[in-house]
């Protein structure tokens, strides 16, 4: 890979040589650790395991490469069911050959580990986490925003071809339906 550089300044300033050596930025270790927001050894109310993959199959009447969560595609991926106040643990495992920037609407996730290595820097909060091929992440969040929330791959062609699910709060319902017959499609 070629290093990238950006020089901001007057035109008559000579550009420095780009960095060719040095540590890669890793948010898992960046910053100073602080008090864990959920306590030193949290007890989780809900745990979910999501395996991202792909396979050949039919989706919306077409034969294609499907982007799957636990070998299923939208709308057949079970929702993540939570109660308000739950402390939720989610494991993401990418068994496909493509990146999946997973985006959870309405919540921020705290990254706990990547590939079994615990986060040691300052808290890494995000609403979108890129899970590269072969990676495994553990994240946590507090269920503190009741509703029906989309959770999907932000490669929108992956979402269109199956990689969409929902985070649903117990007791919250929607009058809307999805699927080809309704005209209410995710893409």
Strand pairing plus helix content: what structural class? mainly beta
Question: Do you know the CATH topology of the domain at 46-169?
Answer: Immunoglobulin-like
Task: Look at the structure and give the mean pLDDT.
Answer: 89
SS summary, helix count:
1
Q: What is the N-to-C order of secondary-structure elements (H for helix, E for strand)?
A: EEEEEEEEEEEHE
Radius of gyration: 20 Å
What is the CATH C level class of the domain at 46-169, in words?
Mainly Beta
The stretches of 5 or more residues where confidence is low (pLDDT under 50) are none
Compact description:
The chain has one helix at residues 156-160; strands at residues 46-59, 62-69, 80-82, 87-94, 100-104, 109-114, 117-118, 125-126, 128-131, 136-142, 148-153, 164-169. It is mainly beta.
Describe the structure.
It is a single chain. With 187 residues, the protein is mostly beta strands. It has a domain of 124 residues: Immunoglobulin-like, CATH 2.60.40.420. It is built from one helix and twelve strands; from the N terminus they run βββββββββββαβ. The strands form two sheets. Strands 1, 2, 4, 6, 7, 8 and 10 form a seven-stranded mixed beta sheet that branches. β6 and β7 form a beta hairpin.
């Amino acid at each position: 890979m070629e290093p990238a550089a950006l020089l901001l300044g007057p035109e008559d300033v000579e550009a420095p040589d780009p960095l060719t050596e040095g540590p890669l930025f890793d948010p898992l270790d960046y910053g100073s650790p602080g008090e864990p927001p959920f306590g030193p050894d949290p007890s989780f109310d809900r745990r979910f395991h999501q395996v991202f993959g792909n396979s050949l199959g039919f989706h919306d009447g077409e034969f294609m490469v499907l982007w799957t969560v636990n070998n299923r595609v939208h709308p057949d991926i079970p929702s993540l069911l939570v109660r308000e106040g739950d402390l939720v643990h989610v494991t993401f495992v990418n068994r496909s050959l493509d990146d999946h920037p997973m985006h959870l609407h309405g919540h921020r996730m705290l990254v706990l580990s990547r590939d079994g290595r615990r986060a040691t820097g300052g808290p890494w909060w995000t609403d979108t986490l890129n899970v590269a091929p072969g990676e495994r992440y553990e994240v946590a969040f507090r269920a503190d925003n009741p509703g029906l929330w989309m959770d999907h791959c932000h490669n929108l062609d992956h979402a269109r071809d199956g990689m969409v699910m929902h985070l649903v709060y117990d007791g919250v319902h929607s009058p809307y339906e999805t699927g080809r017959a309704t005209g209410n499609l995710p893409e």
